[in-house]
Amino acid sequence: MDNLFSIGELSKYQNISKQTLIFYDKIGLFRPAYVNPDNGYRYYSSNQIDYLDTILIMKKIGFSLSEIREHMRNYNIDSSLITLKKQLTVIERRIHELRLIQSRLAHRCAQMENARLYKENEVITEEAGTQYILAHKVKEPYGMREISIATKKCFAESFQKELPIFFQCGVIVPLRHILEERFTEAMYAFLLTEKTGRADSIKCLPAGKCVSIYHIGGYMSIGSSYRKLLNYCKTKSLQIISDSYEFCINDYITTYDENEYITKIMFYVKSQKDSEI
pLDDT band at residue 276, thresholds of 50, 70 and 90? Predict the structure, then answer.
């Protein structure tokens, strides 16, 4: 037809699928100028091409189809300015969120790469910096099911309150459990985060002298690494002064093979000679 484009032609010119154009028609967002009553073929006028451009640009900017439809029912320079300024605020917030996610992923990658620098089951003495964790208590009998539930509560709270987490989980195992060889019975599950007043469940891990070891393998085999840590502290006359903090470096998020799991185990310690002074 003269001065009309078929749905196929419009699809080709605008690089948009016919199915999308049909969907836009069904929801009342972008309807054809003419529909052939005999075969149902859709045809569009040349003036509608600019209208479709506007829809596609607004979609690219980040507006939902319902927002676009509502805006384009009766829009002018004033309404467009208000709408676009609101979207600028949304975009700025998303940029902030993406930068935060970027830094968290970089932190996770750095930890995974750092773990490769150490030999398996090598004990490390280090000065740990201050860290913050979002923690939830694990219910008895402190099994893997209870740990998983507590971890999910951490994630749920962090998402609800928009807390700056590092996408890295861990657990706190009481020292008494370790000494009783109840190595997998954690009392708290946690996520690494930053200092903030938006949650009462955030705890501070202070800077201090620590011993740590990277355990490689499934979680149920972690006892061998604990025994090595305890023996190291005894040999080096180091007194353990904290519960155990386990940080998941490589876990179900980054591998399907439990043999590749990497868990950093950390105790705060002090020299027994210092304790005697």
Answer: low
Domains and CATH numbers, the chain: 4-75 (1.10.1660.10), 119-276 (3.20.80.10)
Q: What is the pLDDT of residues 198-220, one digit of tens each?
A: 899 999 999 999 999 999 999 99
pTM to 2 decimal places: 0.76
- What is the distance between the alpha carbons of residues 34 and 2, in angstroms, rounded to a whole number? 12
Extended beta strands in 182-232, E state: 188-193, 202-205, 208-216
> Helices marked H in the chain — which ranges?
7-14, 18-26, 47-61, 65-71, 77-115, 144-160, 175-179, 223-235, 272-276
Count other Cβ atoms within 10 Å, centred on residue 117.
8
Instruction: Tell me how far apart the alpha carbons of residues 234 and 215 are, in angstroms, rounded to a whole number.
Output: 19
